[in-house]
Design a protein that fits this description.
By secondary structure, the chain is mainly alpha-helical. The protein is built from five helices and four strands, in the order αββαααββα.
Length: 155
Amino acid sequence: MLINSIKNQTNNIFMNIEVLLENIPESEFNTIKGGFLTWKHFYHLIYTLEKYFIDPSNYSDPVFHKNYVCITNMENDNKMSKNKINEYYHNVKSKVQDYLNILNDELLEEKISFEEMEFTRLELILSQFRHVFYHIGYLHCCIRIEKEETPEYIY
């Protein structure tokens, strides 16, 4: 039962990310939304989803990752196209779905230690639900202010 609820809510995350990706054109990916570059909003939420949803103690950055690029408020010369973000997103989505297919109640209770902290797998998942939906809502608000309309929100 709990695993099915986690899968359903994770699917809602993916559908909401996809709605945003569909509604923000490539021409806006290097523009500022809410004080930060649009592509950095997406990269940050996808990067942290990949790192913290599954197992941050056993994580390696993607080969194209550069230091601090996932921190939305740090300026640097890096740029990422919508196509590259989309490709990265689908890769992470696949990893998360594979992970969810092996989860069970026992694994959800397993503790993972990293950076002098300890969380159960369930706590890591719940923290990512909170984190990703924060960014989805933030981007929705930015679009609403900018265009006076909001993309569809999946419940």
